[in-house]
Structures are given as structure tokens and as C-alpha cells.
Specification:
single chain, mainly alpha, 3-stranded antiparallel beta sheet, 4 helices, 8% strand, elongated
């Protein structure tokens, strides 16, 4: 961020958003009506959400993108978990609600946020000059 604005504004691509939504709906739809497998599937879903968070956290508008995905899958999630899970507040200081089964809380997609990348150190000018000199000194042969 430079002076409160992003240097580059980035989103998750539309094809990746569709792929994430489809995978999320596929995992949610595996939950049975009795909830016998719900605990295992909730762990799988949390693991997948953490993977997505680690992969997409550098996109500056990642929270908005995952919020829209969450809204699209919310009705399916509500229908599958309304009878087998309890709805709780995710963090005491937040108003984000999530589901909890046997002390396992579903990580809300709204919690995926942008993480500022650390500054990449610049190559010293002397090093840049040396690299250029080494590249110039190489001889290339033309292969026909």
C-alpha cells in the first residue's frame, strides 16, 4: 500500500472464483442429513479454506471475492447444517456468524483477508552491472 491505496489492485479471476464455488458446493453437498460424516467434512472444508487463504491472500480484493462466493453458497450451507450444527459467533469481537459441530467451527470465508507482501529487496547496482557483464561475455553459437 502506498499512501493508503494499493499499488496494484488485484482480484481472483472469474474462472478461479467459479472453480472455488463449485468445489465449495461439492464439499458441502457431501454432508448427510443425519450429520454422521459432518465432523470429518467440516475438517476437510476448513483445510481447503486455509489452502485458499494461503494461496490468494496476496490479491488486494480477496475479501470481496470470497464474500461474494460465500453469499452464493450460503443457502446450501444453511440447508445442510441447520439441523445438525449450532450457529455461533466466530470471534467474540466480531459479528461474523459460523456453524459449529462438536467443538469444530467452520472458518468463514469472510475471514480470508489481504496480506501485504513484504518488500522484495532490490538487487544492488554493482550486482546488476556484474550480471550484465557476465551475460555479455557469454558466447552463443547458432544451431541450424
Amino acid at each position: 500500500m502506498r499512501n493508503g491505496t494499493y499499488v496494484v489492485e488485484s482480484h481472483i479471476s472469474d474462472s478461479n472464483k467459479l472453480r472455488i464455488k463449485n468445489k465449495l458446493c461439492k464439499i458441502i453437498s457431501r454432508i448427510s442429513e443425519t450429520g454422521k460424516n459432518a465432523e470429518k467434512i467440516l475438517k476437510d472444508l476448513n483445510r481447503q479454506i486455509i489452502i485458499w487463504h494461503n494461496y490468494y491472500q496476496s490479491a488486494s480484493h480477496v475479501r470481496q471475492d470470497f464474500l461474494s462466493i460465500s453469499k452464493q453458497c450460503q443457502s446450501l450451507l444453511d440447508n445442510k447444517l441447520k439441523n445438525i450444527a449450532m450457529k455461533v459467533q466466530f470471534l467474540p469481537a466480531s459479528n461474523i456468524m459460523t456453524y459449529k459441530i462438536h467443538n469444530i467451527a467452520l472458518i468463514p470465508l469472510e475471514c480470508i483477508v489481504y496480506k501485504k507482501l513484504e518488500n522484495i529487496p532490490k538487487i544492488h547496482v554493482f550486482t546488476q552491472i556484474k550480471i550484465c557483464q557476465n551475460l555479455r561475455s557469454l558466447s552463443f553459437t547458432k544451431i541450424l
